[in-house]
């Protein structure tokens, strides 16, 4: 049976962005007229998955019940949005409901586009291929790295945009140390093949990471795009980013595969996305206010936006208060002067007990939070990564307090 419902504010997506915004709005007193559309029973703190794959944490440490983080008074539709119309101020759900709104907040995240790499789905079903971006393969990664005895370990990076772009390097560095702890590192070749032009987009961190891969004897290759996996032969096929006629076939013992990423179909097919050009399919927002460029009653944050910031949870932590301030003022006919400056944070785990905390904003501007040299490996930042940030996330960020 179909039904039509209405809420003043509707939030599509109950992940990090959606919950953070809902919590802040609820704390402002608007909880009873807010709805979240989110199908999942479980909420995941994905920054831990790299460490789960390295055996530092169990998957349970990254998982909580969604219902425990829906703010009091906020209505939760445990359902999926399948059609969004900003023009009609409506969202249609998988269960047949139509939910209309006065104001819309979009926080749908991104999906892994496995079909962007021929043979990827089939390869993931084999014993020697995994991906830490998919919770179904995180534990498998640890098992492989504990089992393999010799050969080539191949780590890949796709064309951006990519959420948590440092993750493929993190698991590579941890794999190196896992092999050293086993005393078998000399029996392996480790390669990092990336579609980017370099190891990191900001020179000060790129210089450090280049020294780290040299120290670890990791071979790096850039401007290479993974287009196919031939799982039966254990081969990965790459093409040159600038010249697709230049092809290279690499044999592997283990392959860490990272597909391209994109907004969900409900976004790509709606009138809130960029209609054409390089950013086609991404939510079209002003990068400073996070307000939609064409629909003034629509706001968005997180990975599915076309704002040129790095796609990290730390970015959402800075985006949420700016978005909420603009939304609340717009609801009362006012204008906010708050701006999101593009802040993102990437705690680059370079080994057990070692983290490089890369913090930066738009145009690569360095934005360190601590009076320390950011371009160095730090044990202090390891404790920040493993102990402080998870607690900040669960107890403060998702409660609208940080």
Please, could you describe this protein's structure?
By secondary structure, the chain is an alpha/beta fold. It folds into two domains: 4-110 and 263-343, FAD/NAD(P)-binding domain, CATH 3.50.50.60; 112-261, 3-Layer(bba) Sandwich (FAD/NAD(P)-binding domain), CATH 3.50.50.60. It has helices at 16-30, 49-53, 120-124, 135-147, 167-182, 203-215, 265-268, 313-331, 379-396, and strands at residues 4-12, 34-37, 42-44, 63-65, 75-77, 81-85, 90-93, 98-106, 111-113, 129-130, 151-157, 188-194, 218-221, 224-230, 235-240, 247-251, 254-256, 260-262, 298-300, 344-351, 354-360. Strands 1, 2, 5, 6, 7, 8 and 19 form a seven-stranded mixed β-sheet that branches. A five-stranded parallel β-sheet has the order 10-17-11-12-13. A hairpin with a 4-residue loop joins strand 6 and strand 7 (90-93). Helix 1 packs parallel to helix 8. The mean pLDDT is 96.
